[in-house]
Amino acid sequence: MDLDLTGRVAVITGASSGIGEATARTLAAHGAAVVLLARRGDRIQAIQQELALEGHSALAIETDVTDAASLQRAVVGARELGRVDLLVNNAGVMLLSPFDEARVAEWKRMVDTNVTGVFLTTNAFLDDLKDGGGDIVNISSVAGRTTAKNTSVYNATKWGVVGWSDALRQELIEHDVRVGLIEPGAVETELAGHIASEAAASVFHDRFDGMDILQSVDIADAILYMASRPKWAAVNEILVRPSKQP
């Protein structure tokens, strides 16, 4: 199977850790020049240096996906590596809580990052993507297909990304831009550590305690597969769960 991305320029948001970091390393290892976007500039600079030492082309740009001006600076910077033809919308937060705890600031942060941030990032790089074709890969979640206690607002953001992705796919067909959706189940990342609600954190950890959950590279491999298909083949959706996740 051909997984070669030589000559392509990939932008990865949320690239400072977890799925984003694994994706940057995986795509670079298969020939792509990678642009790492994240708010933690020191962390992505360190990853860039590691990739450069391995002989890969990489660029780190401190970026906030909720800030349109920050994203425009990222667009200008990314062109140092060439036309962007692969965008991985990975940045996101998972701040679970019972709805009646009314954690309004957390709701807003999830909507701003998981939904509006994806819109703003895609809009920022869309001209490059349409100018010759390419791929947009959106990272949603199994929470964009199913629901559970304490996940209602997170569900809303991820279901939104699922619906938007397919509508966008139809709009961009004529521009030779493929839009794909990756929906991970439980993955070993920093996300769960950000849950401030004790009730939600307890339920979440009890659910997956003792289970062999996914690693970030498992999702990176799915992204690589989706983006490396020949131009006539569009893999629009991949759902990846731990084998033991109900």
Q: What can you see in these coordinates?
A:
The chain is α/β, with parallel strands linked by helices. It has one domain: 3-Layer(aba) Sandwich (Rossmann fold). Helix content is 43%, strand content 15%. The protein has a 7-stranded parallel beta sheet with strand order 3-2-1-4-5-6-7, with helices on both faces. Strand 2 (33-38), helix 2 (41-53) and strand 3 (58-62) form a beta-alpha-beta unit. Helix 1 packs across helix 7. It starts with 8 loop residues before the first strand and ends in a 6-residue tail after the last strand. The model has no long low-confidence stretch (mean pLDDT 96).
Low-confidence stretches: none
Number of helices: 7
Residue fraction in strands: 15-25%
The backbone outline, from C-alpha atoms, is: globular
Main beta-sheet annotation: 7 strands, parallel
SSE diagram, text form:
Elements: E1 9-13, H1 18-29, E2 33-38, H2 41-53, E3 58-62, H3 68-78, E4 86-89, H4 104-130, E5 134-139, H5 152-172, E6 177-184, H6 198-208, H7 216-227, E7 237-240
Parallel strand pairs: 1-2, 1-4, 2-3, 4-5, 5-6, 6-7
Helix pairs in contact: 1-7, 3-4, 4-5
Write a short abstract of this structure.
By secondary structure, the chain is α/β, with parallel strands linked by helices. Helix content is 43%, strand content 15%. The protein contains seven helices and seven strands, in the order βαβαβαβαβαβααβ.
